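Q: What would this chain look like folded?
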Amino acid sequence: MVKRRSGPGLAELADEQDGRALADESAELWDPAYTGVARDLLTAAVRCFARSGYHGTTTRDIALRAGLSPAALYVHFTSKESVLFEIVRSAHEHALAEIRVAGAPGADATATLSELMSRHTAWHARHPVAARVAQLELSGLTPEHYEQVVAIRRATADLFRKAVSRGVEDGSFAVSEVAPVVRAMLSLSIDLVRWYRLEDGDSPEKLGRLYGELAVRMVRA
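A: My prediction, written as structure tokens:
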């Protein structure tokens, strides 16, 4: 039986130093199959990884952050890497689901691209902790897990490519090469995980609208 520890661990003390810097809604991303202690471990891990990096975090750090005994993680996960994979996979799948609904029936290429960029940006701003880990800690994944995540990333890029290509075909967009433009858009949207905090500046929705406008300006004839 997993024994819960009382009192703050090292990660709690670090959180006090970070203030509100790690606040977000990561816990809503975890698969419903993970309940109780497993969910607590995922939430603790995503904060540890965001603050110290995957390689700079130990399983002990994660367990202490969750208020558990050092060996607790192995009761629910096979390894630290399996925890990282669950976080990265879940974040990418939720971000993809968010943009798949972009583009109402009959919407033109401009409106579709704007909504894609807006939704993609707002999602990453709304979940800055999980998004930071998902985007910056890929090197910690095994080759097999990395390929699974890459497949999701390709599906995301494909939606942008289709929207831009459609605009090029109907004359709305003046783009000579679609792929580099899409990479630039995704880089712009994703890079906010390096600096954005929910407590500072514009709301995710406002930031999303701004980035949506910027994406259209990048391609408009």
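The chain has ten helices and no strands.
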